Amino acid sequence: MSHPLDNPIWSALTSGSAQFSHGTDSCRFIDREMGFFAGLPEYSSDGMQLLQQVCEKGQRVILFPSDHLPTTEGWKVLNDRPLLQMVYSKEFPLSLQGGNLKNLNEKHVPSMLALTELTKPGPFLNRTLDFGGYVGAFDGEILISMAGRRLSPDPYVEISAVCTHPDYLGKGLSAQVMTQVMKGVLEEGKIPFLHVYPDNVPAVRVYERLGFRPRTTLRVYLLEKI
Predict the structure, then answer these.
(1) Cα separation of 91 and 88, whole Å?
(2) Interstrand relation of 142-149 and 156-164 (parallel, antiparallel or unpaired)
(3) What is the CA radius of gyration of the chain?
(4) Do 23 and 126 lie in a common domain?
(5) What is the pLDDT of residue 90?
(6) Which residue, of 33, 51, 83, is where some domain finishes?
(7) What is the reported pLDDT for 92?
(8) How high is the pLDDT of residue 174?
(9) Is residue 177 in a domain?
């Protein structure tokens, strides 16, 4: 039996994130106002052909296959990079850190969009907040760091949108907001995990200090139907 994190998007869209998805037993999509994720049971040539058939011209999708896709015919490839998957080790003690942290809600979306546009942690849309669990650090009324949840392939929950304003780097803010999000995940009996580009060495080091350990390397594709 395959591990749910071997195909995390499909696992999430058919389990913990199913309420945000639509599609069939052969292909599923996240709500378009929340993200670009598309899931297939397997990334075969037939699966990619089906995905291409059901998408609209200009539609963008994000895929996390275990290796290079068998075909990208009919698609414009906007991103194709290795992606390191890391899982939190329960044996690692989680200690909450101080900071001016707040739970983020709809009134914070403009600030969240501005911060993610500046720092580019990955796609963040008007309703990405609906994944839940978002926490932010503030300097006065200014959002300077945040993190939240994304895919939920039971029993795992992805920590995502980790970003800090460039003027506030080196102060441990990412660790603070991540720890708060992780605490909420663990209290629900779930296991935090995340994805990061393996060449982002500073981020990988932060995640390792928080107790995340490498599990496998996938690939991340951003495709646009042509």
Answers:
(1) 9
(2) antiparallel
(3) 17
(4) no
(5) 72
(6) 83
(7) 57
(8) 93
(9) yes
